[in-house]
Amino acid sequence: MKYFSIYVPNLQTNDALPTPEKQATMQKFVGEALARGEFVSGGGFLPLAQTGTVVRRTNGTSHVIDGPYVESKELVGGFAILNYDSRQAAIEGAKRFLEVAGDGECITYQIDEGSH
Predict the structure, then answer these.
(1) 25-77: per-residue pLDDT in tens?
(2) Rounded to an integer, what distance in angstroms lies between the CA atom of residue 71 and that of residue 79?
(3) Which DSSP state fits 19?
(4) Strand order in the sheet with 104-110
(5) Residue 97 CB: number of other CB atoms within 10 A?
(6) Could you say which architecture CATH assigns to the domain 2-110?
(7) Which residue blocks in the chain are alpha helix, DSSP H?
(8) Which pairing describes strands 53-58 and 78-83: parallel, antiparallel, or unpaired?
(9) Domain limits, the chain
(10) In this structure, are residues 54 and 65 in contact, taking their beta carbons and an 8 Å threshold?
(11) 104: which of 2, 13, 61, 78 is 20 to 30 A away, CA to CA?
């Protein structure tokens, strides 16, 4: 079963760009997940305030909003497409990821592979 997971860092304790050491640790983690057949695709995002754009539609009108996003309390830090045999295995994978990524949360959804 495939799962889509997003990482929301805790901006109080985990808001800086990753150090070279943390990047190396994450690369090792992803390499190990690839070897186990768990990691399909994914990546981290650069800070939204510097590189992001929000396109919002309200009452039929689209609005483009560039950063910084001072009112944002939760920003997505990265995403992954993962392959696990069960929901429990996906939960355990999210716990392992957070050990490497740091404070925050992983929101994980099972993908409906029947709808294309």
Answers:
(1) 999 999 999 999 999 999 888 766 666 777 888 899 998 877 655 555 567 88
(2) 22
(3) P
(4) 39-44, 78-83, 2-9, 104-110
(5) 23
(6) 2-Layer Sandwich (3.30)
(7) 20-35, 48-51, 87-101
(8) unpaired
(9) 2-110
(10) yes
(11) 2
